[in-house]
Specification:
The chain is an alpha+beta fold. Helix content is 48%, strand content 25%. The strands form two sheets. It has a four-stranded antiparallel β-sheet with strand order 4-5-1-6, covered by helices on one side. Strands 2-3 form a two-stranded antiparallel ribbon. A hairpin with a 5-residue loop joins strand 2 and strand 3.
């Protein structure tokens, strides 16, 4: 509840610079119990983690103090980076998990049906192929040797 996850989109070439500098972009001050002033970075140190990347951009996760998210966003936008918020919803996560499980079950059922159909179709195709080979042999023998003198069709 005190921390917030932000996603930062940045070009691939600026990864090293981002990792070195994101902790110092903005800070906030507060008074300690002893009455002294203290300064803390709005971003949790070493919280940057590359989530996804393609040939042009990186998606980096940064954990920020919830009260200071706007300061971090402003500082990131000044540096030329795009910042996106992320809200974790346990109910949506559970629904997605259940949906994934039902899709896996359905995929297994469909795969089983496909295997059964393939076995049946293979048997049929093999039988048809054998008939075609028999017809081919018969036709070639007739063309090469002609009809037999006592040729009778099976009846």
């Amino acid at each position: 509840e005190n921390l917030c996850t932000c996603f930062v989109v940045l070009p691939c070439g600026s990864k090293k610079e981002f990792i070195k500098t994101y902790e110092s972009w903005s800070s906030f001050s507060f008074i300690t119990n002893e009455g002294r002033s203290a300064h803390i970075s709005t971003a949790v140190p070493r919280s940057a983690k590359v989530i996804a990347e393609d040939k042009d951009y990186l998606l980096v996760r940064v954990v920020v103090f919830a009260k200071m998210v706007d300061n971090f966003k402003t500082a990131a936008r000044e540096k030329g980076y795009q910042v996106r918020d992320f809200k974790f919803d346990p109910q949506a996560q559970e629904e997605e998990h259940e949906s994934m499980e039902s899709m896996k079950t359905e995929a297994k059922e469909i795969e089983q049906q496909l295997v059964e159909w393939s076995i049946t179709a293979y048997k049929e195709m093999l039988g048809c192929w054998m008939h075609m080979l028999t017809i081919r042999i018969f036709v070639e023998s007739i063309l090469r040797y002609g009809f037999a003198p006592n040729f009778q069709a099976a009846g």
